[in-house]
Amino acid sequence: MRPVAPRPPLPALLALLWALLPEAQVHLALEDQRLEPRIDRSKDSLLATARVEATPGEEGSHPLTCAVSLGNQRRSTQEYVTIYSFPAPNLTLSESEVPEGTEVSVECKAHAGAAVTLSWGPDGSPLPRAQTTLNATAEDDGREFLCSAMLVVAGEELHKHKTQKLSVLHGPRLDQETCPGNWTWEEDTPQTLRCQALGNPTPTLACRREGDRALLPIGDLRPVTRAISGTYVCRATSSRGAVTHEVVVNVIYRQSNLATILAVAGLIVGLAGTVGLAAYLYNRQRKIRKYKLQKAQEQAAMKLNSPP
């Protein structure tokens, strides 16, 4: 019986393997194309990476072979690599900036084989078609369109999106909702005078009082005084024109206690003066009547005592 050579201990085998790793040969190939891998060695493994530049027309599944040779031993494995082309979808607006009332066409396109959806609006619900038209209104200003594409690659769904906004030129506009026509406040209460002009481009706004053309302090938080009472004409102006809107400011104020006391005192004095004057006139008339009555009685007595 032949003697069996003793097996080297495990650390010695690892050391031998590590010494032989630099001699290992790694081969990478994509179908028939041999690649030039970069080899990174660690303690007990090798990592081979290679860069592949695919060209149009090579889409599909291709075998990738990795083979390692060490001495007279060779090991290999194979996986499939899927090459695909999936650029971002193309979202087209006939015009991205239009005056109000213009018809705009919107189209969403994607790479062949990808499913596309076009959505817009607050809820983002997709439209039944990837192409639509709309008559641009002020409500469409700033509307965002979303073009979505989905491609299935090796059983996985890939998604890409593109967005675009529509700018609608409109206005200027002043209405009751954004610029109330009647404000009534109590004096000395903190209030913010709000009046907003709508439009694209953004209008300039100035509110001037009829008569002295004093400016109304729009947008400032301040205590209200009776000095701002009056009727104002607000004018919104942009490159598209101008509109006006009338605003009436009423300030309710209460007189002070001193003013009230003075007013009451003045009323009392006035009433007293009126009563005094009336008493004086009545007494004077009474004396005049009494004097006339005495004179009449004296004349009557003289006539009776005179001889016939």
TrEMBL record:
Q: Which domain of life is it from?
A: Eukaryota
Give all residue intervals belonging to the Ig-like domain.
Answer: 89-250
Family annotation (Pfam families): ICAM1_3_5_D2, Ig_2
Keyword Nucleotide-binding recorded:
no
| Record-linked PROSITE patterns | IG_LIKE
- In its UniProt entry, the species of origin is given as Pipistrellus kuhlii (Kuhl's pipistrelle)
Instruction: Please name the taxonomic classification of the source.
Output: Eukaryota, Metazoa, Chordata, Craniata, Vertebrata
Q: Which UniProt keywords apply?
A: Membrane, Signal, Transmembrane, Transmembrane helix
* Keyword Signal in annotation: yes
User: What GO CC annotations are associated with the protein?
Assistant: plasma membrane
Q: What is this protein called?
A: Intercellular adhesion molecule 1
Gene3D superfamilies, alphabetized: Immunoglobulins
Q: Which GO terms describe its biological process?
A: cell adhesion
Q: A Gene Ontology MF term for this entry?
A: integrin binding
Transmembrane region(s):
258-282
What InterPro entries does the database record attribute to this sequence? Answer: ICAM1_3_5_D2 (IPR048679), ICAM_VCAM (IPR047012), Ig-like_dom (IPR007110), Ig-like_dom_sf (IPR036179), Ig-like_fold (IPR013783), Ig_sub (IPR003599)
Q: Spell out the PANTHER family in the cross-references.
A: INTERCELLULAR ADHESION MOLECULE, INTERCELLULAR ADHESION MOLECULE 1
Tell me the leader sequence span. Answer: 1-24
